[in-house]
Amino acid sequence: MPRAVPELHTNGSARRIVIYDTTLRDGAQGPAVSFSASDKLRIARTLDGLGFDYVEGGFPGSNPKDEELFAELAAHPLKRARLAAFGATRRAGGTCADDANLQALARSEAPTWTLVGKSDTWQVSTVLQTTPNENLAMVRESVAHGVSLGREVIFDAEHFFDGFARDSEYAVEVCLEAARAGATWVVLCDTNGGSLPAEIREGVEAVRHALDELKGSARVGIHCHNDCELAVANTLEGVAAGADMVQGTINGYGERCGNANLVSVVANLVLKLGMEALPAGTLARSTDLSRTVAEIANVALPLQQPFVGYGAFAHKGGQHVSAVLKHRDSYQHIEPSLVGNEPHVLVSELSGRGNILAKAREFGLELDRDDAQTQWLVQHLKELEHRGYSYEAADASFEMLVRRLQPGYEAPWKVVDFTTVVRKDGDSVHAEATVKVEVGGAVYHTAASGNGPVNALDAALRKA
Questions:
Q1: With contact defined as beta carbons under 8 Å apart, do 286 and 340 qualify?
Q2: How many CB atoms lie within 10 A of CB 388?
Q3: Strand blocks (E) in 195-241
Q4: At 449, which helix (H) or strand (E)?
Q5: N or C: which end of the chain has fewer CB within 10 A?
């Protein structure tokens, strides 16, 4: 069974923030992101195991993949997280009983419905082409319908901040209608991603105060998009203004420029603001989670992804590396292991002796800082980089370079000769390689085919 509706506070000291993941629905709308039903299930189980409060499965009735996912999770429910099904309020002029979208939500058997409704008068008149009063009725009746079926209902106030800037009274009234109808959460959405932190704060505070005066149980959430590269900052500002739920996606996947990156949001909530967001131990698995979802999405994780990217704690400049070797906090804002990452020393034309010594130590090699050979190695690297070589992402090549300078070094093997042949046969291209390798005085002659001459040579050398 899914966990109960999350409580705001789990202890007397830390403020509890509820984490709602929408990677499977909003994240899947991102460019180049496409999940199969099995992909979605794998991500959902992963998030469930890490203690996420809500996992939004998708839009029931909109596509076969989401139908398959909800059927599987109905048969084998998540153990901890509450499964949410996403849908819209009833259509203008219609009824809840006859609304196909609401019927699909009911069939999904998800314990939580996340209903999206307009909170901007311009969107109501232009997109929905209905009246403000009818839109209020759509919100009120749809939320009440879900509650009457025994579902928890979260209301996503779409375009809230644009609507608040246009007509703040109406935008807030939409939220109050949802709360009066029984919504447990009113989530304020910066749907177009164009709001600034001060605007987020003003809108969240207005709704929080209105809900307080209502004296109901509904709480405020925040949902930000990254079109101005402010999704994480705006989410944190929303929390500071009183939002107790944050919605977002792993790695910030989402339509256009993406959603708030929950990996970064949670790390900031816990490490910077001292709040409680996920169970103890989960934060240290952030890097693994980020890279796992990136692999499933078949989207390369940016090297400079905050907290979890390879470059998040990478040090390249000689003075920086020298300082980090003396004290790791000199150029790192947190201990990398807190988020499951690790520091990296990069070797390049910017390297000093500190980089060389630290990198060699990673391979179990100790170099003398003041040795002439070490200084020669620094200069040699600069010359090679000037000629077009790059060792920044070629650790094995750098290790070979250092080992060859060690006293008594002997090459483990030597290539005597090699031949590659590439031929075209109809629409196919075939590559073959033969090599002679000397190992310990014995000569080995091998051959292999491959996908191109380099791959064929690699296969032949490995056979030898």
A1: yes
A2: 6
A3: 219-224
A4: strand 442-450
A5: N
Q: Across-strand partners of 446?
A: 435
> 60-69, 250-259, 324-333: lowest mean pLDDT where?
324-333
Q: Tell me, what amino acid is at 83?
A: L
Token output for 368: 């003398």
CATH superfamily, domain 18-279, is Aldolase class I (3.20.20.70)
**What is the rounded distance in angstroms from the CA atom of residue 402 to the CA atom of residue 396?**
10
CA distances from 390 to 301, 305, 315, 377 (A): 21, 22, 16, 14
Q: What is the pLDDT of residue 304?
A: 95
Q: Read off the pTM.
A: 0.82
Which residue from 129, 155, 128, 125 is spatially nearest to 141, judged by alpha carbons? 155
The residue that leads in pLDDT, 279 or 464, is 279
DSSP summary character for residue 352: -
| 80 phi/psi in degrees, rounded to 5 | -125, -50
Q: Which structure tokens are listed for 301?
A: 């994780």
Give me the residues paired with residue 88 across strands. Answer: 116
pLDDT, tens only, 345-389: 777 666 666 777 777 787 787 777 777 777 777 787 778 777 877
Q: Tokens 């001292």 sit at which residue? A: 274
Tokens 């996992």 — which residue? 55
Contacts from 38-44 at CB under 8 Å and sequence distance 24+? 39/296, 39/297, 40/65, 40/66, 40/69, 41/69, 41/72, 41/73, 42/296, 43/250, 43/293, 43/296, 44/69, 44/73, 44/78, 44/81, 44/83
Where do you find CATH 3.20.20.70 in the chain? 18-279
Range 73-85 burial, b when 16+ CB lie within 10 A, else e: beeebbebbbbbb
Cα–Cα dist 431/420, whole Å: 7
Please say whether the beta carbons of 339 and 305 come within 8 A.
Answer: no
CATH dotted code for 414-463: 3.30.160
Please state whether beta strands 428-439 and 442-450 pair in parallel, antiparallel, or not at all (unpaired).
Answer: antiparallel
pLDDT tens-digit profile of 188-218? Answer: 999 999 999 999 999 999 999 999 999 999 9
Q: Within the chain, which residue ranges are assigned CATH 3.30.160? A: 414-463
Q: Which residues pair with 17 in a beta bridge?
A: none
Closest CA to 299 of 288, 290, 308, 307: 290
pLDDT of residue 353: 67
Could you tell me the two tokens for 411?
């090459």
DSSP string, 285-338: GHHHHHHHHHHHHT-PPPTT-TTTSTTTTEE-SHHHHHHHHH-GGGG-SS-GGG
